[in-house]
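pasting for the record
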Amino acid sequence: MKKLVILGGGYGGVALIQELFSSYLPPDLEVVLIDRMPYQGLKTEYYAVAAGTVADTEVRIKFPNHDKLSIHYGEVASVDLESKLVHLLNDDPVEYDELAIALGCTDRYHGVPGAEEFTCSLQSFSGARETYLKLNNLKPYSQVHIIGGGLSGIELAADLRESRPDLNIAILDRGVRVLSSFPNRLSAYVQRWFSEHNVEIHSGVSVSRVEKDAVYNMDQPIPTDITVWTAGIQPVSVVQNLDLPKDRSGRILLNELYQIPSYPEVYVIGDCASLPFVPSAQAAGAQAEQIGCAMKALWRGDTPKVHPLKLKGTLGSLGKRAGFGLMGNTSVIGRVPRLLKSGVLWKSKRSF
């Protein structure tokens, strides 16, 4: 039997499984999914779990079921590319003939002292749950600071405002405006929404260190009750520890089939892969589909067809009634993008 091992049951890993099982597979193929959780978590909605606007059961989906698919629950400790072994914590290693790494990302703290110790995270299901408990156990009028004015920070602040109107919420961002990678029109709309809903935005903040009850803008302390970090991501430590060529963000450089050039039996998906896009669930899913098609072509002895990845756009929410989006070069704001995002989420749940 030939064994394909998939590390990670997020958007990329599950999309790969769906593509593989959408058509005929070799009879001697065994597919093994390894994940630490017994279900897929919809990571794009972890901000809502943390804010308390959705229950965690709403963003959990059962893994696919197929005769050729087996699921192994465990924590990946390391990958031995030479021996073709996946080492697990407190478990026997797993051998593979082919491997797909789709382990996602973790917070990137940029060397800021105290950031990892004294801030909350949204990068894992357990982290989002812990953040929910801390945020929703706060006393009225407590001060919450969200470091980072990107998509995650914006959506968390908006949902938290709806969930806890009694809290004082502020976003700390080093740029001159939030959503700096988006057009000015979208950024201005978001800033107006926050102004109308009493969420403060502090621009040009350079976080130098974090303590239990304070965030420091250079030498100036900003008192806080809870700090949430949304100011950057990086591949998980398993990928960081692989001695391979990587880009400036620590993501693995790949060939046109998304294989590691020196280990063509290993594919890398999503946040761990060096792609010409900002890491996203959409990019991971689109890339995984292409990898699945390439794998099946190679198994048949055919030449895989390579197509450039194309993404449909980005949607963000401001609570339950407003949103924003970028569809190609077109900016959309208001009720429509929020409805579109709800529709995309509904479709994703049905698809998975």
